[in-house]
């Protein structure tokens, strides 16, 4: 942490990039990702211009938003010179898949401890975890997960290895926010090349990436509204997002107040719960696929797109708006939930969950 100094706003993009450049980082993700205009989707909805920021195309193991944050997190990890990364996450975690892919790039072994039972049909992210060569353990709950991580770390150490438990790395939230400050700068440049500026940015949010986009807008004095759409009711997103934004400002050495009233987050598109597809989300997945050939996922991005589509249909977004939809990845879940797309919804989907 640097010492925070009062900051005159707005900052220039170059000044923000220079601050981020002081944070240790590796080069893992493909950047810049494309910004594509979804003309057919806009026409179909009779709505605003919609641009899709293709962060599903960040390059490693089917891509996604976590590869950008792993550049910062794993830079911090590598200072300990580990040979093995141990991480505890959910059974069908996008983050787990991208972590294994990134660790493979760095020549590190990955041990995944996933919360849940091994399904009979291995699909989606879990299938890719196996393909990537992770050592995989299953844990009944968070306590069991922690115990397995600690046990494997001790065993690796006893065998002469150098384990690092990634859950203990403090960077997760701030790394995501830093990554999405930078993504916003990319988007603004890409739109400026078309002589445009965004009026709204939509993204599936658990608070981390959204904090970055909110901060970018605030630091630059840009006039867009950041609309996070949550896929989980686990958190109070406004306070969580504002808290992550404050930590990130602290890491950048900036003294700028952020309060939770500045955070716009829609929690009405979760459906019946985290990890369970919703009708509106599934319709959004089909619509993006059928109008643009862009594959979303039914757990995160489909639900965020459902929010955007609803806001067009209900007149919250008008024809003059310029909307950016950040595609955060998660696409392997379409295979987990295969029967949603074949019309055989009465048959159980392979693997379940997110
Ligand atoms: C596909 C996808 N979108 C969005 C999110 C939420 O991103 P954040 O944690 O940066 O809010 C996740 C988190 O796991 C995700 O996997």
Describe this structure in words.
With 354 residues, the chain is an alpha/beta fold. The chain has 2 domains: 6-64 and 172-342, 3-Layer(aba) Sandwich (Rossmann fold), CATH 3.40.50.1100; 80-168, 3-Layer(aba) Sandwich (Rossmann fold). It is 42% helix and 15% strand. The chain has helices spanning 13-20, 39-45, 66-78, 94-105, 124-131, 142-158, 172-192, 208-220, 237-252, 279-292, 301-313, 333-336, 339-342, and strands at 5-6, 35-37, 49-54, 84-90, 109-115, 135-139, 163-165, 200-204, 225-229, 254-255, 264-266, 322-327. A 6-stranded mixed sheet has the order 2-3-12-8-9-11, with helices on both faces. Strand 8, helix 8 (208-220) and strand 9 form a beta-alpha-beta unit. Helix 7 (172-192) packs across helix 9 (237-252), helix 8 packs across helix 9 (237-252) and helix 10 (279-292) crosses helix 11 (301-313). The mean pLDDT is 95. The structure holds pyridoxal-5'-phosphate. Residues 64-65, 94-95, 176, 204-210, 300-301, 328-330 line the site of pyridoxal-5'-phosphate (PLP). Residues 64-65, 94-95, 176, 204-210, 300-301, 328-330 line the site of pyridoxal-5'-phosphate.
Q: Would you tell me the overall average pLDDT?
A: 95
**Bound molecule kinds, no repeats:** pyridoxal-5'-phosphate
Q: Which CATH top level class of the largest domain fits?
A: Alpha Beta
**Head-to-tail CA distance between termini:** 35 Å
Q: How would you write the strand order of the largest sheet?
A: 2-3-12-8-9-11
**Count of discrete structural domains:** 2
**Name of the CATH architecture of the largest domain:** 3-Layer(aba) Sandwich
- Please report the number of helical segments: 13
Unreliably modeled segments: none
Let me know the number of strands. 12
């Amino acid at each position: 942490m640097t010492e925070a100094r009062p900051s005159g706003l707005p900052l220039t993009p170059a000044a923000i990039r220079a601050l981020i450049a002081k944070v240790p980082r590796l080069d893992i993700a493909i950047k810049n990702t494309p910004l594509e205009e979804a003309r057919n989707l806009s026409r179909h909805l009779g709505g605003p211009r919609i641009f899709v920021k293709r962060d599903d195309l960040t390059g490693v193991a089917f891509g996604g938003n976590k590869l950008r944050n792993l550049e910062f997190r794993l830079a911090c990890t590598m200072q300990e010179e580990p040979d093995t990364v141990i991480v505890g996450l959910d059974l069908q975690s996008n983050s787990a898949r991208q972590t294994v892919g990134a660790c493979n790039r760095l020549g590190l072994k990955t041990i995944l401890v996933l919360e849940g039972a091994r399904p009979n049909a291995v699909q989606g992210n879990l299938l890719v975890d196996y393909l990537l060569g992770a050592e995989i353990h299953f844990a009944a709950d968070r306590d069991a997960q922690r115990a397995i991580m600690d046990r494997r770390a001790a065993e690796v150490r006893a065998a002469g290895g150098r384990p690092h438990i990634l859950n203990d790395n403090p960077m997760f939230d701030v790394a995501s926010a830093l990554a999405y400050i930078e993504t916003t700068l990319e988007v603004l440049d890409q739109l400026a090349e078309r002589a445009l500026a965004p009026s709204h940015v939509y993204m599936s949010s658990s608070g981390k990436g959204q904090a970055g986009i909110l901060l970018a807008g605030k630091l630059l004095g840009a006039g867009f509204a950041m609309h996070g759409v949550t896929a989980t009711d686990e958190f109070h997103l406004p306070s969580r997002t504002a808290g992550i934004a404050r930590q990130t400002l602290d890491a950048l050495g900036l003294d700028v107040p952020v309060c939770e009233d500045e955070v716009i987050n829609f929690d009405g598109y979760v459906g019946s719960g985290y990890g369970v597809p919703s009708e509106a989300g599934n319709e959004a997945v089909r619509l993006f696929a059928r109008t643009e050939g862009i594959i979303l996922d039914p757990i995160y991005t489909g639900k965020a797109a459902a929010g955007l589509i609803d806001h067009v249909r209900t007149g919250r977004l008008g024809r003059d708006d310029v909307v950016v939809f950040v595609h955060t990845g998660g696409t392997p879940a379409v295979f987990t939930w295969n029967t949603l797309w074949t019309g055989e919804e009465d048959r159980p989907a392979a693997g379940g969950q997110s």
